């Protein structure tokens, strides 16, 4: 990468980071939200809505990487799925916190099990369980398979929680809101700025995972043994060129040596 | 035993008092049901792994057959638990029923969805560390969406106003979604 593209990339990241902070500044200068019980505090929805949308998008990304892992069996794809789930969990926590603040100012209660509040709480539990599952399986291949299956199960559960439950049971959340153009512009700036910034964070984390995997001789997750024949051409041995002691172990317990 | 202990604890706590609110009674009923299911549903795969018959099963049976067999067992187990828990709850909590048919149907579809989701999760937990604790951690978030409509439908069966049709449709569709997705994903768990 030449210096020009590096500078350009740095400038783009800086602009996006500023875009995230435009949201808080605009929060101070936006007019109070008309139609809500506490109009000044209701402006928090310019954070709450983007966080909720990003939470859903990152969970979809985790499920997509889970499918890619199940097809490719590359551990780097499993790591990407876990990173996407982690970022989705962060967005979920921020959605819950901002939603709770809004609920307290609007309805006088920090938490009242409104269907959408219940749904986001379920999502928090699901992704907490995802990381509990990852922490309890030591074998990386099995961990990747189980995590991918659980991420896909959770992905299939998500439409019920986000789209079906709030429409079956009465909810305090408005079904549609007419926002002023100034609100829409701040909301979109926060959404795009935060979203692209998180994509950059995701790419940095995946690059770090790739470096770590290569240094641990996982070779982006796929063991690539090579068969060589001995002098008689009959006995074949699996060797590794870059393992420190020349021994690699596959997951079925077979060992091979240089 | 866990179901009986839970019912006993609830009844002792109430000291013979009647629960007037159908929603509270329904919530207690499904709390007992859920915790009993959590302690029972993981056993099928744990037993396979402990007795080392899992390998033989992997060699002889296709994954779909294994999943459907375990699902049938879990469903039967939950239905038997319901047959014991429901009358026990009504007796020990001094609760009368407005609609026994609705309670039976709610218990049936609830058992169906509980078994559908927990079978594949039990397979995962059986092959990971800290099995029983991990199963509860994995299963609760996936099964909790069944809890709200099940409590509402049971409350209607206990005499709360309203209709339970939407709740039963939600639970049934959720269970069917779990079965279809588990059938597609179970081979990856079984062969891991």
What report would you give on this structure?
The complex is a heterodimer of chains A (258) and B (192). In chain A, the strands form two sheets. Chain A has a two-stranded antiparallel ribbon. A two-stranded antiparallel ribbon of chain A has the order 3-4. Mean pLDDT of chain A is 74; it is low at 217-230 and 238-258. Chain A folds into two domains: 9-215, no CATH class; 226-256, no CATH class. With 258 residues, chain A is mainly alpha-helical. Chain A contains six helices and four strands; from the N terminus they run H-H-H-H-H-H-E-E-E-E. In chain A, helix 2 packs parallel to helix 6. Helix content of chain A is 67%, strand content 5%. With 192 residues, chain B is mainly alpha-helical. Chain B has one domain (2-190). Chain B contains eight helices and no strands. Chain B is globular and about 55 Å long. Classes of the chains: A mainly alpha (258), B mainly alpha (192). At the A-B interface, helix 4 and helix 5 of A face helix 6, helix 7 and helix 8 of B.
Category from helices, strands and their pairing of chain B: mainly alpha
Low-confidence segments of chain A, ≥5 residues, pLDDT <50? 217-230, 238-258
Terminal CA distance of chain A reads 37 Å
Query: What does the main sheet of chain A amount to?
Result: 2 strands, antiparallel
| Radius of gyration of chain A, taken over Cα atoms and rounded to an integer in Å | 24 Å
Proportion in β-strands of chain B: under 5%
Which terms summarize this structure?
heterodimer; A: about 260 residues; mainly alpha; 2 domains; two-stranded antiparallel sheet; 6 helices; about 5% strand; disordered C terminus; B: about 190 residues; 8 helices; about 0% strand
